[in-house]
Amino acid sequence: MKKSVLAALALSLTLVGPAWAHHNMTALFDFDQRFTRTGILIKTDWRNPHVKLTVDAKNDQG
Fold first, then answer.
1. How many domains does the chain have?
2. Is the peptide bond before 49 cis (omega within 30 degrees of 0)?
3. Which domain holds residue 44?
4. What is the Cα–Cα distance from 40 to 58, expressed in whole angstroms?
5. Are 27 and 21 in contact (CB under 8 A)?
6. Is the residue at 62 inside a domain?
7. What is the pTM of this model?
């Protein structure tokens, strides 16, 4: 019984590792650096499990 529980736990941890690495947002974004951009939402693309927003925005130079 203990061996099967340990095997299940080991398998679970093995499978979760790649998913955790794939969704590691700190590798892609700096959450301490915030900015505000005003614009028009052009397109919303809902593809499980990710969402992509396309915004028509202008920078400080126009």
1. 1
2. yes
3. 2-57
4. 10
5. no
6. no
7. 0.43
What's the pLDDT at 34? 86
Q: Among candidates 33, 39, 32, 34, which has minimal Cα distance to 54?
A: 39
d(CA 52, CA 44): 6
Residue 8 lies in a domain: yes
Express each pLDDT in 3-53 by its tens digit: 888 888 888 878 776 666 666 677 777 888 888 888 999 999 998 778 899
| pLDDT given for residue 41 in this prediction | 93
Question: What whole-number distance in Å separates Cα of residue 31 and Cα of residue 25?
Answer: 9
- Whole-angstrom Cα distance, residue 11 to residue 24? 21
Residue showing tokens 């130079």 = 61
Q: What is the distance, to the nearest Å, from the Cα of residue 12 to the centroid of all Cα atoms in its chain?
A: 21
